[in-house]
Fold:
Amino acid sequence: MKLTRRAMIGSTLALGACKQPARSQTIAPVAALAPLRTAPFPVGVCLQAGQLADPALASLLVSQFSQVTPEWEMKMEAVLKPDGTFGFTAADAIAAYAATNGLRLHGHTLIWYSQDGGEAFARVANGGESFRNAYRNYILGVAGRYRGRAAAWDVVNEPVAEDGEGFRDCIWRRNLGMDYVAHAFRHAQEADPGAVLFLNDYNLETNPKKRRTFLMLAEQVLKAGAPLGGLGTQTHLSVDVAPGAIKEAVRDLASLGLPIHISELDVSTTSTRLMQPDTLRINTQQAALVGEAVEAFMSLPPQQRYAITVWGVRDIDSWLRRAETRTAATERPLLFDDGGAPKPAASAFLKAAGR
Ligand code: G3I
Structure:
C-alpha cells in the first residue's frame, strides 16, 4: 500500500487520539550493549575537529564507530577563502584522526546548492571558461588532497528541489546547467579514482516525489557516463514518520543497483503531533524507526550496503540542539544520550543488525 503523506498524518493522528503506544516494540535493556561497530557493515558518525578535544566524545567515538564524516569542515564554507585559496587545517585534523584510529573517512561535501563559494566564485560567475576552470580546480583541490585517504565523497549534495518538483536553483546550475552534477563526478574521479562517489539528498523517505526526482537525476548521471558510485539518503527523520516509509524508500533507492549510504541518520524527538512530551513513547518510536532503517539496510544485497552514518555522537552533539528554535534544547535525536549512555535506539540498531 502506497503511504501518502495524508495517510501518514492520518494514521499518526489516529494513534494520538487513541493514546496507545504507537508501536508495541519490545526494547531490550540498553545495559551491556555490544558496540555499534560490531554491526556487519560500516557504522559512521559525523565529526568536528573541535570535538576531538573532548575525551569523552573521542573515546565513545572510537569505541562505537568505524567511519567518520566531517560535519562541516571539508565543505566549501570552511575550505574556500575569499581570495580563492584553500584552508585545510580542521579537515586535515579530522583526516589524521581517522587514519590514526583506523576509521574510514567519508568526504562531505564537494558541491552543495547552499554554499556558493562566496567571493571566490562570484568573481568568475559569468558562465564562461573561468567558471568552469574554477569549478574543476576546486574539486581537484579538495578531493585531490585526500586522494587515497577518503574512501568516498558526497560529490553533490541536495540537488533536488525541496518539494521534489525539479532541481534547485544554485550558482552551479546557473553557470553550468544541470550538467554541473555529471561534471562534478567526472572532476572528483579525476581527483581520486579510488573513491566511491555519492549523490546525497534528504526527505527521500517522506517525499516520494522528491525520491523519484532524485532517482531520475541519478539515472541521467549514469546515462551521461559519469562515475556515480552510490546513493546517499540522509534520513533526517521525525518520530512522527509512519512505519514502513523508510523500508519503501530504501527499496526504491536500491533499484539502481548502487551502494546505499544511510548518510545522516537522526530522529528528531520534538514531535509535532504528540499531545504532550512522553519520553517513553518518544524513545519507543525513535527506536522503532532506527530499527526499521537498519532492517531496511540489512535487507540490501551485501554489495549495496555502503554504511549507516548517524549525524552526531551524543544527543548534545546534534546540529538540532544548536538550531535556533524553541524546541532545540529538548531534542534527543541520536543513539547516545548527553552523557554518552546508549539509548533504546542503540539497542534497536544492534538488534536489527543481528548483534
Ligand atoms: O564551530 C564554529 C564556531 O566556532 C563559530 O563561532 C560559529 C559561528 O561562525 O560557527 C561554528 O561552526 C558552525 C558549525 O556548523 C558547527 O556548529 C558553522 O558556522 C555552521 O555552518 C555549521 O553548520 C553545519 C551545516 O551542515 C552547514 O555546513 C552543521 O553543523 C551540520 O550539522 C549541517 O549538516 C548538514 C549536512 O551537511 C547536509 N545535510 C543536512 C545537515 C543538517 O543541516
Notes: The CA atoms of residues 72 and 78 lie 7 Å apart. Residues 279-298 form the longest helix (20 residues). The radius of gyration is 20 Å. The longest strand covers residues 104-112.
